[in-house]
Design goal:
394 residues, Ribosomal Protein S5, domain 2, Alpha-Beta Plaits, 8-stranded mixed sheet, 4-stranded antiparallel sheet, 11 helices, disordered N terminus
Length: 394
């Protein structure tokens, strides 16, 4: 996503969030919650800016998530208190209107999308907390949307189908919040699989779980920089991709093979050609990366991650000096197979594939080298792959 919620003044809780929201709910309402909804953030291993081109992505749901402890109420009102922001948002379902804290627009937008799809919604009240970093490119907004959708499904008796719910959450972000994102963030938050990354076909929403190569871990490298206001750059790249697809006479760049692109790219203006070249080659890299993972080939996967970053930096031009520095430092470490920026770009996080035996030294050494070079203090942590959005009862 390109527009993020305003960051709270205090850091979100980093551990035990389910217990935290349960305790806070009991303190606030005098009883245990009827349900606890959870939805994770994500890190994308490869396949960047391909989702809105109907292409392929290879994300995994991370161990950081949004948690909501809740109970139903019968008056058509939703009231949710955020422990992170220290404030409560209240909204009526009929009529549903904008207003309130900025973060609550993701709750309102999800309610709007569910209602637009014909679902009859019941109100609820609850307590929310998250440890998905805001603005880091780890999909804090998608996690909130899917946790909200899980909450509504629980109290309203809605069937849970991950792909359909992901589409509605995307509609909330596109049409209510006003961010023209693709489907990847919502889909992996809805359909993540524990212990696996997930290859997603963003046209059909078909998924295939793929394991990390044995003996490797994923390390998230938060550069301590944030994107700021870059919606115009993001929207420009979408327009360029659409123009390139029209030039090739296809519905989306996913339908252009690398060879066909190379044969005809001279007919495009230079900027549009570079943008399209990234998408076409990134789709190919992503499919090869999934096969490398199935074969347990860490070296091949790392090399593809490196090529992805170079393409994002040079052809799609969505990297940043901080991201480039972090990736360069990570790649130089002996335990690293490959590293790349992850997320929409212009700031936020990189991701590295690292030998598990070297993970602690990698995190320590890369953090120190990055701080020396940039003066910024990064957040670096190892993550496993978690399940997608889920519901826990009392």
């Amino acid at each position: 996503m390109m527009m993020e919620m305003q960051a709270p003044s205090a850091a979100a809780p980093s551990a035990g969030l389910e217990d935290a929201v349960r305790r806070a709910f009991e303190a606030r309402f005098g009883e245990a919650p009827a349900f606890v909804a959870r939805a994770p953030g994500r890190v994308n291993l490869i396949g960047e800016h391909t989702d809105y081109n109907d292409g392929f992505v290879l994300p995994m749901a991370i161990e950081r998530a949004v948690w909501i402890a809740l109970r139903p109420r019968a008056d058509g009102v939703v009231s949710v208190h955020s422990l992170d922001f220290g404030e409560t948002a209240e909204l009526t379902l009929d009529p549903l209107e904008r207003g309130g804290p900025e973060w609550s627009e993701y709750v309102r937008g999800t309610a709007w999308a569910l209602a637009e799809a014909g679902h009859r919604l019941q109100g609820w009240e609850g307590v929310m907390a998250s440890d998905v970093p805001i603005g880091a490119g780890l999909s804090s907004s998608a996690a909130l949307e899917l946790a909200t959708a899980r909450a509504f499904a629980a109290v309203s008796g809605l069937a849970w189908e991950p792909g359909a719910m992901a589409r509605l959450a995307q509609a909330a972000e596109n049409r209510w919040v006003g961010v023209n994102c693709g489907i990847m963030d919502q889909m992996i938050s809805a359909a993540g699989e524990e212990g696996h990354a997930v290859l997603i076909d963003c046209r059909s929403l078909k998924t295939r779980a793929v394991p990390l190569p044995q003996g490797t871990v994923v390390v998230i490298l938060d550069t301590a920089t944030r994107r700021g206001l870059v919606d115009s750059a993001y929207n420009e790249r979408r327009r360029q991709c659409e123009a390139a697809a029209a030039f090739f006479g296809v519905a989306a760049l996913r339908d252009v093979a690398p060879g066909a692109f190379a044969d005809a790219a001279a007919g495009l203006d230079a900027d549009t050609a570079r943008r399209a070249r990234h998408v076409v080659t990134e789709n190919a890299r992503t499919l090869v990366a999934a096969e490398a993972m199935r074969a347990g080939n860490a070296g091949a996967l790392g090399a593809l991650m490196n090529a992805s970053h170079d393409s994002l930096r040079d052809d799609f031009e969505v990297s940043s000096p901080a991201l480039d520095a972090m990736v360069e430092i990570a790649r130089a470490h002996p335990g690293c197979h490959g590293a790349r920026m992850t997320g929409a770009g212009f700031g936020g996080c990189a991701v590295a594939l690292v030998d598990a035996a070297h993970a602690a030294a990698f995190a320590r050494d890369v953090a120190a080298a990055y701080e020396r070079r940039t003066g910024l203090v990064p957040q670096i942590y190892v993550t496993g792959a978690s399940a997608g959005a889920e519901l826990r009862k009392r």
